[in-house]
Amino acid sequence: FFVPDIIEKKKRGLKLSKDEIQFIIDGYVGGSIPDYQISALLMAIYFKGMDEEETTDLTMAMAHSGEMVDLSSIDGIKVDKHSTGGIADTTTLVLLPLASSVGIKVAKMSGRGLGHTGGTVDKLESIPGFCCELDTKTFIDSVNTIGAAITGQSKNLVPADKMLYALRDVTATVDSIPLIASSIMSKKIAGGADKIILDVKFGNGAFMKTFEDAQELGQLMVKIGELAGRETVAYITDMEQPLGLAIGNAIEVVEAIEVLKGKGHEDLLELCLEFASEMMLLAKIESDKTKAVQKLKDSIETGKALAKFKEIIGNQGGDSRVIQDYSLLPKAKYQSEVAAAEDGYVNKIDAARLGLTAMKLGAGRQKKDDIIDPAVGIWIYKKVGDKVKKGEVFAKILANDEAKLSWAVDETRKAFEFTLDSIEKRKVIWAKI
Ligand code: URA
Ligand code: CA
């Protein structure tokens, strides 16, 4: 093949063959095709798109560009849940113990990307001693013996995606649905999951701003999963406000424990029950959805799910007493409450603004080598549709820097919009594909 011919073909909106796509990925990762040719091709893809088959071929070529994780020594069907990213998404922290408490084997690999807060591994590492750098054998053995383990992503997982993403980032080609879909699905497929649940978020605090775009992305990823022989289910969920109440790292661990104690916020609980019950169906642990949900609720009620979290924490070197004693988690030096100026109802919460505020407090990474401050973050006590009284506290800021504290109070106040008329709560799950 000749690279300019392939670019020319896509420029004219023609379909690329599997072999051409393989040639491009091999050449790029191998160093024989330069950035400038790939840049031109990415821009052609941005404008002309790719069909389901091309996107699947790209996904598979990318997935095979590095290590393909083999989870076959773990019994049962491995189901992975993946979120496209939102603000304060505490679901994975809850799902790990909740799903394994009903018999699902959960082998979770999670990245440490940029974001408003850390990823799931960063959040868990706010527990003293907790280690997310497991070698493959320890990881697999842990899943086999206690039912769940979490580890940082292998450095050699989908190198093609690392290279392509960096190039997309500087050539204004990130927001192409086939490129996003192949980026996400290649990592899921290389990660070794048999079946995949995708949480495609939309709204002000998400990558996809509209329901329609999220739906298009979800449909394409489900199709890729099907063509690649990995059953995939996608949910379109709300990110017009943060999920649950905590935005941070240590405080999201607290929030997850609260859910496992039956005291978590209803929207976070609803999403966790939906994903965990779907995992049970996909893993063939249960065939009836209602029964699956009931088993999960029982597991929370009886303390089984919480006990499983304790076991997972202990197994990875963490201090499992945090389950009962939150004061063992890192604590911020300063805190400040934010109170309502008038009676009213919460009309809107600017999730993106809160996320950015949490990040600037130190909860997330702006650059790859930034260090996360596990103690800082934002608690919100009111969600859209909730009533507030004058003087009532609706948020609390945790900071390790006094100047940032007062700035964050101001930002949080600006992120909340109130109204005098009562309004409906926002639904969390909008569609299932
Ligand atoms: N998340 C990814 O992993 N890849 C993208 O391209 C976009 C979001
Ligand atoms: Ca949360």
Write a structural description.
This protein is an alpha/beta fold and 433 residues long. The protein has 3 domains: 3-49, Up-down Bundle (Transferase, Pyrimidine Nucleoside Phosphorylase, Chain A, domain 3); 79-323, 3-Layer(aba) Sandwich (Pyrimidine Nucleoside Phosphorylase, Chain A, domain 2), CATH 3.40.1030; 330-419, Pyrimidine nucleoside phosphorylase-like, C-terminal domain (Aldehyde Oxidoreductase, domain 3, Alpha-Beta Complex). 46% of the residues lie in helices and 15% in strands. The chain is built from 16 helices and 13 strands. The chain has a 4-stranded mixed sheet, sandwiched between helices. A 4-stranded antiparallel sheet has the order 6-9-11-7, sandwiched between helices. Strands 10-8-12 form a 3-stranded antiparallel sheet. Strand 4, helix 10 and strand 5 form a beta-alpha-beta unit. Helix 5 crosses helix 14. The model has no long low-confidence stretch (mean pLDDT 96). The structure holds uracil (URA) and calcium ion (CA). Residues 84, 165, 179-180, 183-184, 207 line the site of uracil (URA). Uracil (URA) binds at residues 84, 165, 179-180, 183-184, 207. Catalyzes phosphorolysis of the pyrimidine nucleosides uridine, thymidine and 2'-deoxyuridine with the formation of the corresponding pyrimidine base and ribose-1-phosphate. Its EC number is 2.4.2.2. It catalyses: uridine + phosphate = alpha-D-ribose 1-phosphate + uracil; 2'-deoxyuridine + phosphate = 2-deoxy-alpha-D-ribose 1-phosphate + uracil; thymidine + phosphate = 2-deoxy-alpha-D-ribose 1-phosphate + thymine.
